[in-house]
Structure formats: C-alpha cells, structure tokens
C-alpha cells in the first residue's frame, strides 16, 4: 500500500497536540511527514522541522500550500494542529490546492468561519476530516453497534462527562503557552472548556446514541480569577 505524504501546520517544538498527531501517524504507519509550517515564525518553524527530521520547512501555511501543490512529490494531506483561530484560513488554503485536510477540533473559533469553511469543503474535491478521535476506540464502536442493533432498547438518557484539572490554576499568567491561547477569546473562540473538551463529550454522546441535539440549557463557570472564558460547564441537552 502506497504511503501518504503528510504535511503539518502548527505542532512545533513547544506545542502539545502536534506531537500526539505525529505519534498517531507513526502508529498507523501509513504516513510520511515530509513538510511543515510548524510555528508562527519562519525561524521557529525551521528549528522545529530540523529537530523533528522534517525535510521541508515553510514560514507560513500559505507558502506551504502554494509550494507543495506545485511539486510532483508534494504532500497529499495536511494535518492542522494550530490554535483554533487559525483552523479556517489554513484549511481553506489547502482545500483550494486540492490537498486533503485533517483538522483538529473544534472546527473553527466562530460560526461565521465554520459556515465559510463548510462552503469551501463543498467546492473542493478532497476529503476534510475533523479529528474527533475517540470515535475510533473499539469500546465506543461496540457501544454504538449495540445501540443500533437495539440491544439496549430505547435510549432515554445519555450522560457524558469529560473532566480535566490542569487549568484549575491560572497557568495563563505563568507563561504556559497552552494555557495562554486556550483562555484567550481571540485565539480560542467564544468557548473555553466547551470548545476544547466539551466538543468531545458532545461528539461522543451523538455518535454512540445516534441522537442529535435540538436544544440546550447551559451553566458556564470560570473558576480562574479574571479568566474570560469558561473552564467548567454543566449542560442539559434535548
């Protein structure tokens, strides 16, 4: 089976989720990571590419999309692992060049960007994949299959929970990059914990049950002093 030439936007040396994507691609063993625009500056991107053994480094995703599309051995797919506010623009750049897109969740940081990206995907003759990765776990697949087969009867109540505690302290004030952008509305979007991990809970509830959300009542909280985005949420969905 032919291996897939993969590029990456974001995911440099001081990032988090990019490393997870690289590990997953190696476990899958069907990808060769050959190009990247790994950071917000050309210098940082080049340093990360050298450290990771990635042959081609670019200073921006725009430059990367243009150059890779022009190469006979250019990337066939790109993994976008940037902060949320970059997802839409980066994805559209590669879609326009006929390159398959694997985009980290949440889809975008605004509804307007999400609708524009949906339109771009509809026009492109390539795949767009949003990484709700938990749907691939065997136990999740088994639960979905059992519900589809009627083994559990009518589903009356679905409960989903996703706890994390690393942002209980104000780490955004301590120079922790992952905390800084996740608590910044300009980069994270309007949803804090809801956009970051609540997306997984929502996706799993719908994927396993086969049900779709029609209405919502939410209580959003911020335990961090002065924090602008939610870091805790309780929701009732119908």
UniProtKB/TrEMBL annotation:
Domain spans labelled GFO/IDH/MocA-like oxidoreductase: 140-238
Signal peptide range in chain numbering: none
Location of the Gfo/Idh/MocA-like oxidoreductase N-terminal domain: 4-130
GO function term, MF aspect, one: nucleotide binding
Pfam family, one: GFO_IDH_MocA
InterPro entries: Gfo/Idh/MocA-like_OxRdtase_N, Gfo/Idh/MocA_oxidoreduct, GFO_IDH_MocA-like_dom, NAD(P)-bd_dom_sf
Protein name in UniProt: Gfo/Idh/MocA-like oxidoreductase N-terminal domain-containing protein
């Amino acid at each position: 089976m032919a291996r897939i030439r993969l590029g990456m936007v974001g995911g440099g040396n001081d990032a988090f989720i990019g490393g997870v994507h690289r590990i997953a691609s190696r476990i899958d063993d069907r990808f060769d990571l050959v190009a990247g625009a790994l950071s917000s500056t050309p210098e940082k991107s080049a340093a990360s590419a050298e450290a990771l053994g990635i042959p081609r480094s670019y200073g921006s995703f725009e430059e990367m999309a243009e150059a890779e599309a022009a190469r006979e051995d250019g990337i066939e797919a790109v993994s976008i692992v940037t902060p949320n506010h970059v997802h839409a623009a980066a994805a559209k750049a590669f879609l326009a060049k006929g390159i398959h897109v694997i985009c980290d969740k949440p889809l975008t940081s605004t509804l307007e960007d999400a609708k524009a990206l949906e339109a771009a995907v509809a026009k492109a003759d390539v795949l767009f994949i949003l990484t709700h990765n938990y749907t691939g776990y065997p136990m999740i697949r088994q639960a979905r299959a059992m519900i589809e087969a009627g083994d559990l009867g009518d589903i009356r109540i679905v409960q989903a929970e996703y706890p994390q505690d690393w942002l209980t302290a104000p780490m955004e004030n301590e120079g922790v990059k992952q905390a800084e952008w996740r608590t910044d509305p300009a980069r994270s979007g309007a949803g804090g914990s809801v956009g970051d991990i609540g997306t997984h809970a929502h996706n799993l509830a719908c994927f396993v049950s086969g049900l779709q959300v029609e209405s919502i009542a939410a209580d959003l909280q911020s335990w961090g002093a002065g924090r602008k985005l939610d870091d805790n949420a309780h929701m009732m969905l119908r």
